[in-house]
Design brief:
507 residues; alpha/beta; Ribosomal Protein S5, domain 2; Rossmann fold; Helicase, Ruva Protein, domain 3; 5-stranded parallel sheet; 4-stranded mixed sheet; 22 helices; 18 strands; binds adenosine-5'-triphosphate; binds magnesium ion
């Protein structure tokens, strides 16, 4: 007898519908799985055989062939245990029910328990688009899948429970989505705790408002790490689509929080500087998203930037430019999104005190240059804002007056983002940092005064053509924060101040 049930395959973030066919016929007993299965899929045979017996069913004698179609795609992992099991029970007439509009996903243990898997959200989205009405997933993944509207997602604890539902003996209720959470971080961190550092705080506000990458340079203990960790508290809330995109990535990486399987707060990732280039940008024999994709729609913080491996830093260049990482393997090409705000922090030299107003630097000029040159020009170029974080003096530190809170700053950021959303509707970009050259000319209109000022500064500061574009983008964000339609002279002035460091340290 022949039977077919549906399931969903996944490669990287791309998922596709699969048909799991089973044929049971007379002849020498054997059990084959065909259709480009990997080792984990082949091992399904042993798990399914044991699970069928231990759930009180009969494992059919005779020749069993299971085909995973389409046969040209490599199938990975233990996701298909459940559909294989259902298909065999159907083919051997032990289960008679209509599963035409159903799909099944899940690993099965030897005693018939259903174990959680990775990538459920992406797979449920594909199932819904293919017209599946009911999808059965491991219980632990049900809330994640339930984020997709228009499809019933059932969480299954064990095979017995699933079969009783399929034959109409019991009636399971579909999983309900995670209640909408306040996506603003309830974090203990707040900008009001940072004393002084007016310029650095302004720069972080601009970075948050326009999605710009930022580099902070300063001596030890000046508050660079402290400032960076507070950036998520002033970012705009995640939209539903952003939330789903980020959750998909965390889901395939198996990094979802069991209690809150839908990511609703912008990720903040701060990998250690010993990370490899694959760990940072993604890849590996079985492709996995890197830290830059885990930070998608949020912040990637690289503390002590010069300590990172050169090849790891270089691997960031293309994803920073394109907003996606592409990994090519013999089995296919995987693309992970990587729309992030990159925040990097560093000391100006190995001892940390080069350029310090009171403490002497003990490094040779050569050592300072060598240290700074660990950051390549092209990477530096992708960081729109460069700022100095000077040591805070006693007066600022002991100041009792409370500075601006994150909530106050966030309000301005949200307003600036709303202006950008309106302006870039239908253009494929959503913030100033992503402006393409042609959109830049169109949307970064300066007053005559501002234009004359920029042209004077351009020659005086010896800026490059690339720097010109970056300054305009940053000036656009500064203007949006103030609600200026045309970019004013002051906005250009602020943008230029955020760009003077590379000349101080690197030239
Ligand atoms: N502006 C500030 N306001 C209040 N506290 C500060 C400030 N700057 C530094 N501190 C205090 O100093 C500690 C160290 O700051 P932080 O770790 O951010 O320094 P850093 O610039 O990252 O130094 P390093 O270069 O060594 O990494 C903070 O945890 C905080 O307690
Ligand atoms: Mg630090």
């Amino acid at each position: 007898m022949f039977s077919m049930v549906k399931s969903v395959g996944i490669f990287g973030l791309n998922s596709y519908m699969l048909e799991i066919e089973a044929d049971v016929s007379g002849g020498m007993p054997c059990f084959d799985v065909v259709g480009l299965p990997d080792t984990a899929v082949k091992e399904s045979r042993d798990r399914v055989r044991a699970a069928i017996k231990n759930c009180g069913y009969k494992f059919p004698t005779g020749r069993i062939t299971v085909n995973l179609a389409p046969a040209d795609k490599k199938k990975e992992g233990a996701v298909y245990d459940l559909p294989i099991l259902i298909s065999i029970l159907n083919a051997s007439k032990q289960l008679e029910c209509d599963t035409r509009e159903c799909a099944f996903l899940g690993e099965v243990s030897l005693d018939g328990q259903v174990r959680s898997i990775n990538g459920v959200l992406a797979m449920v989205i594909t199932a819904k688009q293919s017209g599946i009405s009911d999808i059965f997933v491991p219980f632990e993944n049900a809330v994640e899948g339930a984020a997709v509207e228009g499809i019933n997602v059932y969480g299954i604890k064990n095979v017995k429970q699933l079969i009783e539902h399929l034959i109409g003996f019991t009636n399971l209720t579909p999983a309900v989505p995670q209640p909408a959470q306040d996506s603003i971080i309830n974090s203990m961190l707040d900008f009001s705790e940072v004393k002084g550092q007016v310029m650095a705080k302004k720069a972080l506000e601009v970075a948050a408002a326009g999605g710009h990458n930022l580099l902070m340079i300063g001596p030890p203990g000046s508050g660079k790490s402290m400032l960076a960790k507070r950036l998520p508290t002033i970012l705009p809330p995640m939209t539903f689509d952003e939330s789903i995109e980020t959750t998909k990535i965390h889901s395939v990486a198996g990094m979802l929080d069991k209690n809150h399987p839908i990511v609703t707060t912008r990720p903040f990732r701060s990998p250690h500087h010993t990370i490899s280039s694959v760990g940072l940008s993604g890849g590996g024999t079985v492709p996995r998203p890197g830290e830059i994709s885990m930070a998608h729609n949020g912040v990637l913080f690289l503390d002590e930037l010069p300590e990172f491996k050169r090849d790891a830093m270089e691997a960031l260049r293309q994803p920073l430019e394109d907003g996606t990482v592409t990994v090519t393997r013999a089995s296919g090409t995987v693309t992970y999104p990587s729309n992030i705000i990159l925040i990097a922090a560093m000391n100006p030299c190995p001892c940390g005190y080069y350029g310090h107003p009171s403490k002497p630097c003990t490094c040779s000029m050569n050592a300072v240059h060598k240290y700074l040159n660990k950051i390549s020009g092209p990477l530096l170029d992708r960081l729109d804002l460069h700022i100095e974080v000077p040591p805070v003096d006693y007066k600022a530190l002991s100041d009792k007056a409370q500075g601006e809170t994150s909530a106050q700053i966030r309000e301005r950021v949200n307003r600036a983002r709303a202006i950008q959303n309106e302006r870039y509707r239908g253009t494929g970009i959503n913030c100033n940092a992503q402006l393409t050259p042609s959109l830049l000319r169109k949307h970064c209109v300066m007053t005559d005064e501002a234009s004359a000022y920029l042209s004077r500064s351009f020659d005086a500061m010896g800026l490059s053509a690339r720097a010109y574009d970056r300054i305009l983008k940053v000036a656009r964000t500064v203007a949006d924060l103030k609600g200026n339609v045309e970019i004013q002279k002051d906005d250009i002035g602020t943008a230029l101040r955020f760009r003077s460091l590379d000349r101080k340290y690197w030239e």
